[in-house]
Fold each of these.
Amino acid sequence: MPDSLRRFKADIFQALAHPTRIAIIDLLATGELSAGDLMERLGMEQANISQHLAILRAKKLVTNRKSANKVFYSVKDPLIIEVLAIMRKYFQNNLKESHELLHELDSAHSEVTP
Amino acid sequence: MPDSLRRFKADIFQALAHPTRIAIIDLLATGELSAGDLMERLGMEQANISQHLAILRAKKLVTNRKSANKVFYSVKDPLIIEVLAIMRKYFQNNLKESHELLHELDSAHSEVTP
DNA sequence: TCCTTATATTCGAACATACGAATATAAGGA
DNA sequence: TCCTTATATTCGTATGTTCGAATATAAGGA
């Protein structure tokens, strides 16, 4: 297993390592949506969504198509959706540890106020 | 798809988003190895390997077992190995874009010297 | 042309991650 | 007990990521 393959995988995982980007891919899994649709469904800042889309584009996880003044995005390879499905299964396989992890994620954020 | 599941997935992907940690999981895929074994096979600093192992432990991707003064690590759930296998398939499915990505990764590092 | 809508990019601040050097801990063995 | 081997943790620095605010671009429509 050459190091280049590992760097590639790490790079794709990095692109997937944000809840908003996972949400975008989840939404696109059922069909293409415009940037505005994604913005509306996720209820986030326009610039923020656009930045996350830029990352997904850079890593070639999504393709985009321009129609009039809208840009429609879709998932490029359904294998990525399969990866997300396996991760859901992983979550369920390890329910106990999964919930522990989530609690750590929560408390990590509220650690500011002791 | 609740947001907590997305945060969980993002967190696991974050843990996988480093070539060294992928290499560690690849090595552990065939059976348990000690921290020293990993250090030797990867030819990296002891502290660095130990830090990466700490991350994999924190995200419960690996388990460890102490025997005498050695610590043996193994992959906790083979589903993770399956995820890596799917990523390899993804790499092959998208050979053209994959190589483009790798070149961008390479040139991103040498951008210091124009 | 000017205006509006839709999307992208740039910038700076806050925060997170990665690394090696140094240090700490823990388990045997002499 | 002291020494050695194996592993973990802490610290400082460099680098990368995320966000919103502001700005830029691009395509119609009036």
Note: The CA atoms of residues 66 and 72 of chain A lie 6 Å apart.
Amino acid sequence: MNNTLCPESEISISAKKNRMIMKELVKGQESATQLKVLLEKPFGSEGSLSCQELTANVLRSFTQAISIINSSSADEVAHRSLLNSGQNGSPVAVSGENRSQKGGRGRYNRRKNALTWTILSCTTDDNHAWRKYGQKRILNSEFPRSYFRCSHKYDQGCRAIKQVQVDQENPNMLQTTYIGIHTCNGTPMATHSAIGSSSTEWESSYLLNFDHHDSKVPNVQDHHISSPNLTIKQEFPKEDTHSDVADHKYSDPNLWSDLKDFQPFKPTIMPFRMESDNNNNNNTNADNVYSSCTDYQRLNMNFEMASVHFDTDFHFDESHFDESPLL
DNA sequence: TGCATTTGACCCTT
DNA sequence: AAGGGTCAAATGCA
């Protein structure tokens, strides 16, 4: 056998991460339960956390779990890359490595195996500093797509990027696709202080899709996995409350015009489904039941479903990743 | 003056 | 070949 890359340590790492994910999901479920109780009995619950705090906890748990999943998948991709490179002792050519050296301009550096996930949000804000490096008009799309890289690309070598585009179906919303995970300091989890202080921004985004394996940007309709996503302001620190619109100086005046008057909305939580369920079309009954629930029941269901999935189907084992075509 | 954004060119992927 | 992603010079702003 060729698999000599310390399988035992890999298993223990995966198991550890699995436990971390479970822990986060359970925490989130507990917070959602408390939230439900709080909303059913708004009086006489002195001493318990506020709705906002509980909701923030729920969102934080989702975000933490997603973050752990990301890092696990990244580890796996890196591991597989190592395995692939070991065939004859020489590294596998990196995309673009042996291609034109002509100045390097426009060189396509996008990582094919980079983790991607998309959120729909009212704001572009998150807890990272981004720098815009491009904007393109996209075919059949009314709105241009903006390209951002992590501000710490050069000082810390962080390779995270994101693409922001106004949602075609709902111009009040922004579709943000994150590609790659931050390796710089100052992750959202590292600075929780903003969570309690800003109660509207995190309310306004939720995860549309999460992709372990390739960098395809999912369609808006593909709500296979949905959950709230934490967003914290830091991106363009401005004092003006309209900074989201005015201070970004996007060249297309239509891009942000509708965002000036956006109303915070209560996120609709969609069922959490793992990718393995994508082809399952027998969800009609479950979906009907689900759609009749309150948002808070849905939230709880999400955590329960996520917990079950992680407990039974998703152990970060080899087989899960072997199903994916990795280069 | 230094940093961020804009924008057209270049190059990669499909 | 078309569309999309990235680069870097030009430009704007504090």
Note: Chain A has a mean pLDDT of 53.
